[in-house]
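Here is a typical protein record:
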Amino acid sequence: MRKLVLFGDSWTNGFTKEDGVEKHIEDNLGKQISERLGVDVDTRGEAGASNQKIANNIIRYIQKHDCTNVAMLIVWSEKWRMPMVRRENQTGDPVCHYDDPHFITHMTTKKWKTIEPVWRDLNDHGFNRMLMEQCVHAVRGALKENDIPYLFTNSIDNFWMNGEMNLFHGKSKSDFIGGDQLHHTLLDIILGFYKNPKYKNEDINLRQKRELTHIFRIKHDNIRTALTKCEHPTKEGVGRILDKILPEIEQILKRKKDGTIRF
């Protein structure tokens, strides 16, 4: 099978924060995929990554690596996260070129509050959706041009709402795991919204979903064991996610260059 390269935010790299201390669970999404399918997985997710940063990381990876025998799983982040240019790297040296994978970083909450009064577009749903769509389509085009099998999903933010299903992404909906569903995120799988007839036509935006997540985690043991206090997946939570989506991931790993599937 192909090697899997995994891009995304904190839901891919095992990030969690307990009592103010940042940690990473060892049995993260990439590791469990590797163990369950017996494949090589390169996990390149970063906590706090905006969709612009994820897109930049993917395109630069394609530029710099041989992707002949690679498949990619992209876990998109929430559309409200905004990118920033990193002026210096961790050693203090200047970062001046977009080819540097660390050229784009994410905006901290403190920075957001500083910029928000000046850049009011940050709070405009249409503006953020437009930026996110550009990321998705740019990455989609690069992957198709380079014949790289891929799948999209989201960590917590369902990209479309009821009424936008046929307008939002056009044909790219079919690239998302569960893209015909209103609730198709990894969080939706844990909360029980994914492919649940009860929620099939019920709009739940990200703010509402976060409120429900907090309530569900208090009330339901099965949610509490699947999510950390900071509402990231535990080892058990990752396992539940893969119980639902692993067969689809396996399909892209088996895909040959001519588009047929290895059996």
About this structure: The CA atoms of residues 155 and 203 lie 17 Å apart. The beta strands are 3-7, 15-18, 21-24, 41-43, 70-76, 83-85, 104-106, 150-154. Residues 3-253 form a domain with the Rossmann fold fold (CATH 3.40.50.1110).
